């Protein structure tokens, strides 16, 4: 593996002390790879300070720091992987030695085989796609709707005061209890499942985003008002962009909440999807299928969360 | 007169009660004049600026803003204590913020923004973000953001109080220079007596609670064209300082609580 970091010390062959800025700079270029061929000759001895006092080689210090950090990160990654392997191995051993009932908890081997079998039958991708699609539509709509409702509340403080108790009630209610109602109203299909996902996430999104709208720095608002900004302009240029971090973090939370809504929804109505796989496995007493569903859900939910987290990081390049 | 306040009183009403901040303020400023309001913190100085800017309505009294040229009402620019640059906008976009609120940005505006940034020594910073700049640089951006809207009247609310002393002295000179060149009417609010003398043509001393104007001081004609840094070295500077200091002391000592709580 090419290590771009530790070049600087090697580039000072005839003077261990007193690397000056020009050499540091050369080290940097060398690290870049483009000037590597120049090697030690690139050192400009003429500009080296004549005094005996050694200057700090900042480049080397920084590189050493980065190396240590990177090594630490690698070690942590290794331990994390080991834990996973250990878990799978322990599961396998515990089941094969009958410490746990393999009929209930299955084994990693059987789960894998079940997955491959479903894949070969051609149904696995369909189940995954259905659930991922429902979840994505669910958490994105919930966030958009939540932000829209929050904006409505921000534009009308009177409205927000009037409906405040109702929001509290809606927020405290377990939304999955609405499941039967959704099925009656939206039919026993994907629409009901998506509505379930939205209902789980939308109220809390509204509350969190509205809170963030209201907590926008009063001084930014005053600044905008000194230029004569209207309420609409205030929202567009100050309140909304200032709440972007809150909205993105709501998006992240909503990924998890939408999974809850979708899986419960699939338990209730679906003929397809990972939630259906689990409930079907339960009904025919095939717990390998149930485990497969769980494993797939945890992998997919993590992936989705990471993707959203990455999008959040990309769009937050400035410091608040 | 481009600004005239007649018998302006103002009370803040909160859940805890009403609190009078200003009493019978009489204040004027001529076109092109640099007027400073000096007083202790919490004395109602900023309230006066907010009233003139129209962010607050006076509880009693009238505020007249004159015509700038022809029939156009004088435009007001307001610079706050801190820069309050928007962190998600580049420096250029921050500079253009006020214009964007007031009208559609045209390509010339971007040229003017660059020219003004050059003038305050920030050429090459247009595409940076606020967090990359020092406090003094950010406050200069804030000044440009206000100046680019070309206001006839500039309201400055302790614009340098958050900066370190040397930065402040430099910015005073820059501000003095710019404002004289562009012939702006300025109303500055500060608690710093020497800053008031260094920059202004005329000084109002605000004292008591609720705040009222306790003294008006004309800076000698001979001092007015001189830059802030040089003014601080003049002998007259000390005597004016002494005069203001004594007035402020007297009114701090005989302070009477006029704030009425209730309802």
Automatic annotation (TrEMBL), chain B:
A GO MF term: ATP hydrolysis activity
Domain of life: Bacteria
Entry protein name: Hydroxymethylpyrimidine ABC transporter, ATPase component
ATP-binding listed as a keyword: yes
ABC transporter domain span: 3-233
Pfam families documented for this protein: ABC_tran
InterPro entries: AAA+_ATPase, ABC_transporter-like_ATP-bd, ABC_transporter-like_CS, ABC_transporter_ATP-bind, P-loop_NTPase
Organism of provenance: Candidatus Carbonibacillus altaicus
Keywords noted in UniProt: ATP-binding, Nucleotide-binding, Transport
């Amino acid at each position: 593996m090419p290590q771009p970091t530790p070049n600087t010390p090697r580039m000072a062959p005839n003077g261990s002390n007193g690397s000056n800025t020009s050499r540091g700079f050369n080290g940097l270029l060398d690290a870049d790879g483009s000037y590597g061929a120049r090697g030690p000759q690139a050192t400009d001895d003429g500009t080296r300070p004549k005094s005996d006092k050694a200057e700090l080689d900042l480049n080397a210090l920084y590189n050493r720091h980065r190396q240590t950090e990177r090594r630490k990160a690698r070690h942590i990654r290794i331990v994390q992987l080991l834990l996973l392997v250990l878990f799978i191995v322990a599961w396998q051993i515990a089941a094969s030695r009958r410490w746990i009932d393999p009929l209930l908890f299955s084994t990693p081997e059987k789960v894998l085989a079940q997955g491959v079998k479903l894949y070969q039958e051609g149904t696995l991708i369909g189940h995954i796609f259905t659930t991922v699609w429902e979840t994505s539509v669910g958490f994105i709509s919930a966030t958009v709707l939540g932000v829209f409702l929050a904006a409505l509340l921000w534009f009308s403080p009177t409205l927000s005061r009037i409906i405040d108790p109702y929001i509290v009630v809606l927020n405290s209610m377990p939304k999955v209890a609405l499941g039967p109602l959704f099925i009656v109203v939206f039919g026993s299909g994907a629409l009901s499942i998506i509505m379930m996902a939205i209902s789980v996430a939308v109220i809390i999104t509204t509350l969190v985003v509205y809170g963030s709208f209201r907590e926008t720095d009063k001084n930014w608002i005053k600044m905008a008002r000194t230029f004569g900004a209207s309420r609409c302009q205030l929202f567009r240029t100050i309140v909304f962009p200032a709440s972007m971090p809150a909205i993105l973090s709501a998006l992240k939370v909503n990924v998890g909440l939408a999974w809850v809504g979708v899986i419960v929804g699939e338990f209730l109505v679906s003929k397809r999807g990972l939630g259906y796989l689990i409930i079907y496995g339960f009904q025919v007493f095939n717990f390998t299928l149930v485990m497969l569903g769980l494993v797939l859900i945890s992998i997919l939910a993590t992936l989705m969360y990471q993707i959203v987290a990455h999008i959040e990081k990309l769009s937050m390049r400035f410091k608040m | 007169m481009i600004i005239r306040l007649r018998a302006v009183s103002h009370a803040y009403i909160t859940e805890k009660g009403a609190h009078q901040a200003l009493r019978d303020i009489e204040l004027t400023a001529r076109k092109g004049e640099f007027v400073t309001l000096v007083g202790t913190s919490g004395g109602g100085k900023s309230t006066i600026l907010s009233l003139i800017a129209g962010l607050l309505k006076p509880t009693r009294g009238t505020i007249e803003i004159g015509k700038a040229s022809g029939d156009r009402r004088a435009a007001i620019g307001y610079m706050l204590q801190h820069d309050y640059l928007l962190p998600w906008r580049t420096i250029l976009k921050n500079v253009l913020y006020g214009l964007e609120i007031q009208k559609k940005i045209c390509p010339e505006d971007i040229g003017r923004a660059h020219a003004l940034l050059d003038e305050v020594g920030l050429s090459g910073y247009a595409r940076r973000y606020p967090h990359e700049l020092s406090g003094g640089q950010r406050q200069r951006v804030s000044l440009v953001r206000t100046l680019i809207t070309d206001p006839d009247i500039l309201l400055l609310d302790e614009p340098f109080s958050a900066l370190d002393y040397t930065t402040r002295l430099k910015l005073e000179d820059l501000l003095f220079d710019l404002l004289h060149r562009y012939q702006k009417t300025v109303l500055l609010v500060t608690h710093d007596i020497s800053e008031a003398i260094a920059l202004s043509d005329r000084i109002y001393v605000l004292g008591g609670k609720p705040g009222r104007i306790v003294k008006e001081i004309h800076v000698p004609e001979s001092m007015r064209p001189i830059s802030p840094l040089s003014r601080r070295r003049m002998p007259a500077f000390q005597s004016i300082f002494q005069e203001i200091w004594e007035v402020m002391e007297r009114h701090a000592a005989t302070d009477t609580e006029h704030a009425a709580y209730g309802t």
